[in-house]
């Protein structure tokens, strides 16, 4: 048997997604608005369904509704629709009650961008 | 026209005998090659399918394996398309022959998905099958993404958890007749209740295993077949397509849209409609994915009803995953698509193990593979030579 160990440390540039990545680090939902058809994508889409490559970055409220949710040994995740966006986004659920349907984007921890949804407080959800 | 002159699969399981992916690849290649009736000098191109260098720890595995096979000097390439790698490699071979760049092509799929790395590290590598800048930033697992897709599918159809259990039971039961299968199990209802949720609705039993193994086929131009291999199955059509990688960007995250397009392209080439298909080996990474696949391939308008009525069982109109599929036979990723095509060819020709063989093989079969949550789809339709 040949024993081998491989440790890799990547530094992945955000590229065109920098506004999106920076937003996630700060807990801000930055979506992409198509200049042509005004469709807003979150997660951002580089070429809109209408074919346009022209768009601008816009800040969304950061609140979202759960569309589908999965729970288990792998954790809790959901397909969520962020307010102001037309597309859905996969999110990790953090301290999210099983009967809750609304949440807010949480700020990243440890300096690593993440898409995490935390449950809204009762007065925010209503 | 392209013919399948040779086909073979090694056992898919967790190797504990000290053998490596180079040994399994060699065994699969030699078995397929010896069936083909060709000489080594007849092979013009070797196509290797392997999902990730991180599994083999070997960049350029095609050249390494060419040397092992005694094929130094032939053209080589490695094809990668996530879980679809194997079927895309088959397509690369077919296209080379159609383009008259080769008369005979060896296609070998392999991955050491079980024994070379701890399962948690394999799982971490699989998580890179998804867009690292969007879905990947959630830390989502493959199972959880498939689960979200399945939930959308179940919300739209009459598929329930009972149907997920039924698919699992059927595939693992088929595997009991396959001497090369990884999980030969006969499940009872209580087994599912005791199986923990990995990502609801998927319990551990609804998931395919990590396996080691290899599969190989020899593709030949129909004008250059050895005398004893004139009446072998033909490749009637191939088709591939892609979908939004990000699940949230899809109009219906529960629908395998790329597979529908791939099947349409393959069926058009073959000159058939899906109702001509009498045998299917499909990509059942998870139980629900099989039902989503049967819908997308056009093999069923109502997968729940057709599953209940036995359409996909061994004696049904279109038997599905007689090999046991990924859930029963096993899932060495690069080998899956090649293995599905090999299984269809062997079944059509009547040369698979007697326990698996159908007494009356159909005219047409489909081998279906995908990568990601059906992000990349690759479909191959095979037919009996008399259907040519």
Notes on the protein architecture:
The complex is a heterodimer of chains A (126) and B (388). With 126 residues, chain A is mainly beta. A 5-stranded mixed beta barrel of chain A has the order 4-5-6-8-7. In chain A, strands 2-1-3 form a 3-stranded antiparallel beta sheet. The model of chain A has no long low-confidence stretch (mean pLDDT 91). Chain B has 388 residues and is an alpha/beta fold. Chain B is 36% helix and 19% strand. In chain B, the strands form 2 sheets. In chain B, strands 3-2-4-7-1-8-11-10-9 form a 9-stranded mixed beta sheet, sandwiched between helices. In chain B, strand 5 and strand 6 form a beta hairpin. At the A-B interface, helix 1, strand 4, strand 5 and strand 6 of A face helix 6 and strand 5 of B.
Multimer state? heterodimer
CA-CA gap between termini of chain A: 61 Å
- Give the percentage of residues in beta strands of chain B: 15-25%
Strand content of chain A: 35-45%
Gyration radius of chain B, in Å: 19 Å
Tell the overall outline of chain B: globular
Class inferred from helices and paired strands of chain B:
alpha/beta
Q: What would the average pLDDT of chain A be, to the nearest integer?
A: 91
Helix content of chain A: 10-25%
Low-confidence stretches of chain B: none
**Spatial separation of the terminal alpha carbons of chain B:** 9 Å
| Strand line-up of the largest beta sheet of chain B | 3-2-4-7-1-8-11-10-9
Which pair of chains forms the biggest interface, and how many residues does each contribute?
A-B, 34 and 33 residues
Helices and strands of chain B, in order, run as: EHEHHEHEHHHHEEEEHEHHHHEE
């Amino acid at each position: 048997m040949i024993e081998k160990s491989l440790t890799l440390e990547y530094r992945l540039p955000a590229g065109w997604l920098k506004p999106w990545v920076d937003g996630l680090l700060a807990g801000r939902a930055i979506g992409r608005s198509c200049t042509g058809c005004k469709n807003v994508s979150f997660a951002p889409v580089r070429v809109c369904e209408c074919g346009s490559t022209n768009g601008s970055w816009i800040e969304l409220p950061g609140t979202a509704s759960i569309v589908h949710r999965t729970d288990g040994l792998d954790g809790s995740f959901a397909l969520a629709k962020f307010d102001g966006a037309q597309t859905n986004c996969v999110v990790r659920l953090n301290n999210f009650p099983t009967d809750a349907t609304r949440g807010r984007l949480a700020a990243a921890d440890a300096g690593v961008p993440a898409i995490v949804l935390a449950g809204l407080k009762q007065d925010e959800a209503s | 026209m392209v013919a399948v002159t040779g086909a073979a699969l090694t056992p898919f399981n967790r190797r504990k005998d000290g053998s490596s992916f180079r040994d399994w690849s060699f065994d699969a290649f030699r078995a397929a090659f010896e069936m083909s009736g060709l000489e080594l000098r007849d092979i013009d191109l070797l196509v290797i399918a392997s999902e990730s260098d991180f599994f083999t720890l070997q960049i350029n595995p095609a050249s390494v394996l060419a040397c092992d096979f005694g094929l130094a000097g032939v053209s080589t390439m490695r094809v990668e398309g996530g879980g679809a790698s194997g079927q895309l490699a088959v397509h690369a071979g077919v296209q080379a022959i159609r383009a008259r760049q080769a008369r005979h092509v060896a296609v070998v799929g392999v991955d050491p998905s079980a024994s070379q790395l701890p399962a948690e590290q394999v799982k971490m590598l699989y998580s890179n099958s998804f867009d690292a800048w969007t879905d990947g930033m959630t830390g989502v697992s493959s199972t959880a993404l498939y689960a979200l897709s399945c939930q959308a599918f179940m919300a739209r159809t009459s598929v329930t958890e009972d149907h997920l259990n039924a698919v699992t039971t059927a595939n693992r039961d088929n595997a009991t007749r396959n001497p090369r299968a990884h999980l030969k199990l006969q499940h009872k209802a209580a087994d599912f209740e005791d199986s923990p949720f990995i990502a609801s609705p998927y319990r551990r039993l609804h998931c395919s295993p990590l396996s080691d193994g290899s599969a190989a086929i020899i593709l030949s131009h129909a004008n250059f077949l050895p005398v004893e291999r004139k009446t072998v199955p033909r490749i009637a059509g191939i088709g591939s397509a892609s979908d939004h990688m990000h699940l949230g960007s899809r109009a219906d995250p529960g629908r395998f849209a790329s597979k529908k397009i791939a099947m349409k392209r393959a069926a058009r080439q073959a000159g058939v409609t899906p109702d001509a298909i009498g045998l299917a080996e499909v990509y059942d990474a998870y139980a629900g994915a099989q039902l989503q696949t049967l819908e997308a391939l056009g093999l069923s308008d109502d997968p729940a009803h057709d599953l209940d009525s036995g359409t996909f069982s061994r004696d049904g109109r279109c038997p599905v995953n007689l090999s046991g599929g990924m859930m029963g036979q096993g899932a060495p990723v690069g080998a899956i698509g090649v293995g599905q095509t090999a299984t269809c060819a062997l079944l059509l020709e009547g040369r698979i193990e007697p326990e698996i063989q159908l007494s009356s093989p159909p005219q047409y079969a489909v081998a279906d593979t995908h990568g990601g949550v059906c992000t990349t789809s690759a479909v191959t339709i095979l037919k009996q030579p008399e259907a040519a």
